[in-house]
């Protein structure tokens, strides 16, 4: 395999919501009005049996259609290593959901943001998307070590604190984190279905130095929910006792050998609502 250039993927952080969809049971039994089809022998005043219907849960929230995220803006930057090298063709774009859940047996007085899961330990200016699990593991171990050392100090020094404060410390010391990747939640962007978006004619070349070009391509990627696995994004009480954060994961696959170098991945913070 010959390296022809370096490609980087960028995405604009959206300011709109991803609709979570309605839970199955509410979808099935959320009629709200009497059905015209009544059970044999029943009267208009009698209890109306339940009938499967689709839910209008989205209307129960203080948001309108304009607040729902329908697309996301991305840009691919390709710096060629050879003057004649052009950007590779895009074979497809996947849009997944990444959910970070954190839980503990005790309440905690703090909330976690995306930087806890994506920032490289001891280097707040360096973000490494490809190593987010390892970064989170190290950040979590550092936090627990700090809290446990403080608990040991309180015991050794016989320092008294309130019961609430102690439960907060125990909560942080028992904190657990889980990452879930939800695939096939959005429609995959393919040349056969979105030819104009993936067209090779949309690249723009910029001269950065003699013999080197920087190619850029901006795309507005549509987010059409298909939810093939029928996933409800909000966690159940049993699976997430503290909180959950979400990211929209964009996976751009370039034509060529099936190598990690031909895949561009970025996680974009989003809100679910």
Automatic annotation (TrEMBL):
Residues 135-272 form the Bul1 C-terminal domain. It comes from the Eukaryota. It holds the Pfam family Bul1_C. InterPro entries: Bul1-like, Bul1_C. This is CIC11C00000001264.
């Amino acid at each position: 395999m010959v390296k022809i250039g370096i490609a980087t993927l960028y995405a604009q952080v959206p300011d709109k919501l991803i609709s979570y969809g309605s839970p199955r049971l509410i979808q099935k039994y959320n009629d709200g009005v009497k059905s015209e089809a009544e059970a044999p022998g029943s009267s208009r005043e009698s209890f109306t049996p339940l009938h499967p219907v689709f839910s209008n849960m989205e209307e129960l929230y203080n948001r309108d259609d304009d607040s729902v995220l329908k697309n996301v803006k991305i840009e691919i930057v390709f710096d060629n290593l050879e003057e004649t090298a052009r950007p590779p063709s895009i074979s497809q774009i996947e849009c997944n959901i990444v959910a970070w859940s954190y839980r503990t047996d005790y309440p905690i007085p703090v909330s976690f943001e995306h930087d806890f899961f994506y920032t490289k330990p001891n280097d707040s200016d360096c973000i490494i998307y490809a190593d987010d699990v390892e970064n989170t593991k190290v950040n979590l171990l550092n936090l627990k070590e700090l809290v446990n050392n403080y608990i040991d100090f309180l015991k050794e020094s016989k320092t008294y604190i309130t019961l609430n404060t102690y439960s907060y410390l125990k909560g942080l010391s028992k904190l657990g984190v889980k990452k879930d990747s939800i695939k096939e939640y959005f429609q995959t962007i393919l040349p056969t279905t979105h030819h104009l978006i993936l067209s090779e004619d949309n690249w723009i070349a910029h001269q950065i130095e003699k013999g080197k070009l920087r190619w850029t391509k901006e795309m507005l990627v549509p987010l059409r929910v298909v939810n093939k696995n029928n996933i409800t994004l909000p966690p159940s009480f049993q699976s997430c006792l503290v909180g959950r954060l979400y990211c929209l994961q964009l996976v751009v696959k370039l034509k060529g050998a099936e190598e990690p170098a031909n895949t561009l991945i970025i996680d974009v913070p989003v809100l679910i609502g």
